[in-house]
Design a protein that fits this description.
4 copies of one chain form a homotetramer. Chain A has 389 residues and is an alpha/beta fold. Chain A is 35% helix and 21% strand. The two termini of chain A are 36 Å apart. The interface between A and D is large, with 56 and 56 residues. Chains A, B, C, D: It comes from Shinella granuli.
Chain lengths: 389, 389, 389, 389
């Protein structure tokens, strides 16, 4: 990034494949835009749907060459690993339960994987995927996209450098309202698989958005969860998975936190919010207004830091494309994950070391996320008993 | 209220005494302003400090006649109950542990009591006070002042009339930062008694501000707590009482909630916030911007209702003094409690029935608040087990 | 003020009379609350309406002794000046055209005048009133109430002490929407006299609210207007006075500004806003959120200063009653003007010098305001030619 | 756009060239990202700098084939018009004075032009360019990028469909602070050409940002300017062009407006704001929070419409990529202009009619912008006399 006032020395684009993301899928389109924004990728192959016909049609619509459109991810992995100029990386944007089987095929063949969250639909799969990833020379990048926002980078850097003092509190919330009514019953595709345990796993709101909030709280605070006590609930009658969760947390080292995620909080679109309070300063960030970060030093007036504006630190500037006052949004944050991945992939390609400031969510972060979901469910089943993370 | 564009037919002012609130006390001055704003009271007597000399000096400074300045609340109750034109009502603004002994003396003598919160420093006293109040013909008003804000009245009315549908979630938070450091050690008066179990009771932040948030959540939602699970904590080393609490709640009827109160959340002045989400609509209110209420009907754009503005309902207008766009604040909200009390006291004086729209926190609300504090402590001692409210 | 944590040494209350402010008048009630909040006044006499019967009824409703209710202001001035314990000060809250004749009667008899704005309905009267005031030993206080807001005091102090550097721009705006339709035609009292040239003078929105914005811009910036060019307009058909004005300004010393006032800007309740930009820093303040002041030093992150919070200066703290995070509003700001007046009046009473930090709008400020209105009208008649202030 | 939940049927990408935008240029990089986001373009040729060596280096960095990197725009136009698969469109992102000569070369050869604003550095050139464009079969698109924001489309549609009633007021402001000090003297490239009359033309802030605000006010309101009165000023000593302007406006049909643009308003990053008030409703939009639109119907509570959220209209949804609550920013708004252009270009390519909802700023809009700048300067030279637009 850092494109402000410059062209960039460009390496050849990374040849990218995609699993899932065909017609009717929202997140696939987001991944494709994210991959394009900083121009480090070229989409050249796809197994875009579990229905071969739909895969072919979607591939054609996206302008893929017909011999690079596959009926299933396995054939794609096999062939792309063999052909000249086969894909170097693949984006996996299927429902959760397919992440592990798909990722495995590519990692084993040395193809880098960029995978949507949560990592898998259950902890057993997550651990298997961890092992596969550790045994592979290929990279694994999990798109906890909110970690790509510049002001989140700013916040994390502040904590790391001690500007907040000792962290006492990490408050995370992620309310939405799009599942306030049982829209899955009328076949709305986004909600159908997200409320289906077979495709999503044991967690509903906890898996879909709780993991984002949890990941972000840890990313910013640098803390690790020790244990949690949860009250996970389903408000909409007939729904199989949770649509609201209240979670109390204790972090290693003594900090505490609350996490609230909900898909029935009427009036909330995508109101992810993280607040971290330390002995010296506190910070507050809201995803819906992502170009701002509130910073309050104890005993001083609050400051409103703006992305790439006066007061923004180098960690924020590094992942910023345009000047302060010119808002960047969700797609740019997502693109940053792709660009961080590209930096790592290109370093690999050239046999170089990845620069130390390259930062993306890892398979380990993914395992933690799935463990979080299962701990929430377990605690809730035991009526909110504290469960080790 | 409803003074807009009119004078008001005025009854003779209520003769008021005060217990506590001498030199160095913050909340006493607030009560005096609140009593003056709508002009229903006249302060004529006081036992303003437990130190007789200080009481006398403070009384003189306030312009009280010297024979109406008392060394202690008991002598005040005894004499004022006897003399012609003695006080009709008394404001009790002492530290918590004195609320019960003081209130008792006045209630037993038929003098109305306007008492600061929390009701008492422990549940045993609270129950005794409840009994005394029930046996007395005098009124008891608890100054959970935040219930006096017009937009809180608007919110409550919306819930009552079903505009939110069935309530699912009540989220309460009350972060402050003024106790982020051990300022009580340097003798700062406000913090000294609030962190002293002998004067405050078992709860620190839970008693001081948690009770406000809890009362407000119940006031708006009309719900009753069934059980809670709490993680109550003291972050500042050496402090005897809690300065942070995380509480998960289950309300009768199936709604759920979180309550977070903190006095170490750096950057928060007095950030009380209540959010209520139902099946049909959700509302959000923040004490620091009290003239606004966010209302979101499911599937419609959010509305920002302003106090006495277009869209404000009659319950809000009833306790509003000036037009929308002319902000009213904390003191006006507090004054509304005094004015509601005055309506009831004057009705009593005239032998009339209190109008049904008069609304103020009662001794029962106070008992619930103290029970809430003790339940938080009890749950926390049992490592967050669910405890009946 | 500065009541936080203390009682105040109290002088005997100032005996106050009121001219205007009877039944149906909004601003009279505001003045009465403002006079009560800090407890420096006691309302003891009134000529509350130009209709004697209404005056008497209103006086009774306010609890005035019957011999202190007058049929007209002149009899009130004459008698109150003679009797023992007659009024020391009078509040004049009539329509504009009565300010001069009423004020004159009291000033000439040594009774202090607290007068609503604008000073008079025309510049000739304003200059006569200036002369009367200068010849009188009594004080004259103009209730440009917005100058009483703590964050406005903060802002002014910042400019004065050079924190903004050299001022370049003063942007004032005051949009409302309550006159977007011809409500005066249906006899709504507030609008009826405000749109009547006989009672208001030559200015409609310019006089009613433009003068507030202009006064505030000058109060904060410390600048004096040199010349203006105005486009004054009436949007609502059949209305005799302006309901919108655009004004370009040049201040002495080279700063520039824009003033926009409107009573037809749909969606604006009382959106007075002042922004001042200097070579070193800029500030922004909005009346509807008065407890906040944005401060931006060139090249640094913006700060949000809160009333009486960390970062608020002594000038703001001096006129603040309660801690930061406990919002004060319009009535408290108005009360500050009354309290500043009380400080001056009590100093006079005691033969002492008024403390130098006492600050209230003067008769000279009032003359400037009326001159501003007439300059706007004059410029507009000459199609926006620049007119000396 | 409208990619939510779908792939898109894709036409072959438009072959794009670029003039200007080499190393050190900010806006060139923005255009390139904007062209990529929706994947309708492929950058294949460039004359990226007036210095041939720099053009070559920049082209190589961007991965252009060496025979498609040109020393100057004229050779590029000549050759690309001849070769097979030459460019179909060109982006012109040079300083203002080169827009006309460059655009002419391409338009005359039937190559579509996407040109940065303002149209030209003077009105004479603007009129010549208009003529060239009218005589050409190629399209001309001016990147007044702010018209691409979804909530701006929403606002425009509201006005068009009569939801605001008759428009009375259009208030535009565009304050920045990056030129508060003479940074051009130290050679900062962005400021150097913007403050140089030879490259920018007669307007400084008026041309650079005033034209944006003016264009946006007209775009939303649908009004045409009749005359203006301006006070244009240079605050920073030694600067050749204006850095602040105050403009009063009268629109055809009777509406009025103010436009303020400034590059010395300390604390403002890029605070473009448009407010339109009609007889029935008013709207407010701020570029720094572009996903929101305030809508206030007279006599109702304000609504906060969010991009692609409940309440957003079809005109907003049409140019929205992702769901409400997932903020889109400046780059997406810019990309919308490119995508609208692509729709028109592809229609041309296929010999089809452009769909009627395709909307982009035209060469005529550009002429109006340059005329606006010259009218501001002319009015200001005549001390603010009204000048016809």
């Amino acid at each position: 990034m850092a494109i402000e006032g410059s062209t960039e020395k460009r390496e050849a684009r990374i040849r990218l494949g995609m699993v899932g993301g065909g017609s009717g899928a929202f997140i696939g389109a987001v991944h494709r835009i994210a991959a394009r924004i900083d121009d480090h990728y070229e989409l050249v192959a796809g197994a875009l749907s579990s229905t071969p016909e739909k895969s072919r049609q979607s591939g054609a619509e996206l302008g893929l060459a017909s011999d690079r459109i596959y009926d299933d991810f396995r054939s794609m992995a096999i062939r792309e690993a063999k052909i000249k100029n086969g894909i170097e990386a693949v984006s996996i944007v299927t429902p959760n339960h397919m992440h592990y089987p798909a990722a495995k095929e590519f990692l084993r063949r040395g193809i880098h994987v960029i995978c949507d969250k949560p990592l898998t639909s259950n902890l057993a799969d997550a651990k298997k995927l961890l092992k596969v990833a550790q045994e592979s020379d290929a990279l694994f990048i999990l798109t906890h996209n909110y970690t790509g926002y510049p002001m989140i980078r700013h916040a994390r850097e502040m904590v790391k450098s001690g500007e907040l003092g000792e962290i006492r509190l990490v408050q995370m919330e992620y309310p939405q309202d799009w599942l306030a009514e049982p829209i899955e019953e009328s076949g709305q595709k986004q909600s159908a698989w997200r409320t289906d345990p077979k495709q999503s796993g044991a967690g509903g709101s906890t898996g879909d958005i709780g993991t984002h909030a949890y990941n972000l709280g840890c990313f910013v605070s640098g803390l690790e969860l020790e244990e949690l006590a949860a009250d996970v609930h389903t408000f909409v009658p007939g729904r199989a998975l949770d649509d609201n969760a209240h979670v109390m947390m204790r972090f290693k080292g003594g900090a505490k936190g609350i996490l609230w995620c909900s898909q029935v909080a009427t009036g909330n679109e995508n109101a992810l919010k993280v607040r971290v309070y330390g002995t010296k300063a506190g910070i507050e960030w809201s995803q819906q207004d992502p170009n701002y970060l509130w910073v309050a030093e104890l005993g001083k007036a609050k400051q409103l830091i703006t992305r790439n504006g006066a007061g923004a630190n180098a960690a924020a500037g590094r992942v910023s494309r345009i000047p302060g006052g010119h808002p960047e949004g969700y797609l740019e944050g997502f693109a940053t994950i792709y660009t961080e991945a590209a930096r790592a992939i290109i370093a690999k390609r050239k046999g170089e070391k990845v620069e130390p400031d390259v930062l993306y969510p890892s398979v380990q972060d993914g395992v933690k996320g799935v463990a979080f979901v299962e701990a929430c469910i377990a605690s809730s089943k035991r009526n909110g008993a504290w469960v080790k993370a």
